[in-house]
Write a structure and sequence with these properties.
Elements lengths: L2 E5 L15 H7 L2 E4 L10 E4 L5 H11 L7 E6 L10 H8 L6 E5 L5 H8 L6 E3 L18 E7 L8 H12 L1 H5 L1 E4 L18 H7 L2 E6 L10 H8 L2 E4 L7 H4 L3 E2 L4 H8 L3 H18 L2 H15 L1
Parallel strand pairs: 1-2, 1-3, 3-4, 4-5, 5-6, 7-8, 7-9, 9-10, 10-11
Helix pairs in contact: 7-8, 8-11
Length: about 300
């Protein structure tokens, strides 16, 4: 099954703050990556379309999808439980193609929230899932014993979407004991939307920063989805602490410090014996490396496509 990942030629993917969006997603899976404006000349069985679109991309895709005869299936990549509420023109276009001939959807998360409701209303379009694949080359091997005994905390602050994360941010603001055990990194912003970046600790620098602490705080959001951070924790070789995502592999969950992250919980976590920390971090990394192996995920996707389409 020949899958090709199509991306915008004009969108500034170099400004996107994480590798789960843009050409890197397709390359991590081992798919060929092509520009959307070449979609009419590229041979494929399955076309997977990145959802960050310019006006020019929308025009190209609208013309292409108007003639479904003799072409392979087209899957639009969906990457946010709240995408149906977006006002972005590209997202509105993608949603508007629901049930069009040969149009289907690929979700990087187990469908939840408004996106699950949107999928439930589909009549002809089908849905498959393809989680973020593991990239071993991103691993950092800083020994646990060389790190600060702290919990790395990062990400957007939004009480409605990330209530657990926000509670820890606030706790570190008023509780000096909690603050002592947490390394906070503010959100870098969204420079790909034209807004100025708040800092440049993204991508590989982000994983390097995380690897300076023994633990990595994880919050799956109110929708309990397996965010990229669950992989980045493994890349950093850190001990995962916080709350489980609904799809987290069992072997990874068994090496996860499930915690409410109160001050006493943080102190107890960071003062665990060194050998226990090393074992948890190592087993978590191995579990994620195995369960999110790109070839395994791609084969599973083939099975889903065969069954659904």
């Amino acid at each position: 099954m020949k899958k090709v990942f199509f991306v915008s030629r004009l969108f500034p993917f170099h400004l996107v703050i994480y590798p789960g969006s843009g050409p890197g997603f397709g390359r991590a899976y081992g798919w060929a990556v092509e520009a959307i404006d070449d979609i009419g000349t590229v041979d494929f069985d399955i076309a997977i379309i990145e959802n960050r679109l310019t006006e020019a991309d929308i025009a190209v895709l609208d013309r292409y999808l108007a003639n479904p005869r003799g072409r392979g299936a087209v899957l639009f990549k969906m990457s946010d439980p709240e995408m149906p509420q977006s006002r972005n023109a590209g997202v509105r276009f993608i949603l508007g193609k629901a049930d069009a001939p040969g149009v289907h959807y690929l979700s990087v998360y187990e469908p939840a929230g408004p996106l699950a409701e949107f999928f439930a209303g589909l009549r002809r379009s089908r849905v498959v899932t393809a989680p973020f694949p593991y990239e071993p080359q991103r691993e950092i091997n800083t020994p646990i014993g060389d790190r600060a005994r702290r919990v790395f905390l990062s990400g957007a602050r939004n009480r409605r979407i990330y209530p657990f994360r926000e509670s820890l941010y606030r706790r570190t603001g008023w509780n000096p004991l909690a603050r002592r055990f947490v390394d906070r990194l503010g959100h870098p912003g969204y420079p790909d939307t034209g807004r100025p970046a708040r800092h440049d600790i993204v991508g590989e620098r982000y994983v390097e920063r995380a690897a300076g602490s023994t633990h990595f705080f994880l919050d799956p959001s109110r929708y309990r989805v397996e965010l990229m951070k669950y992989l980045e924790c493994a890349y950093a070789g850190s001990v995962p602490i916080g709350a489980l995502a609904s799809t987290l592999p069992r072997a990874a969950a068994e090496n996860f410090v499930i915690s409410e992250c109160r001050a006493a919980d943080l102190r107890r976590a960071v003062t665990m014996p060194l050998d226990e920390l090393e074992a948890l971090a190592g087993r978590y990394r191995n579990a994620m490396r195995g369960a999110r192996d790109p070839k395994t995920l791609d084969a599973m996707l083939d099975g889903q496509i065969d069954a659904a389409l």
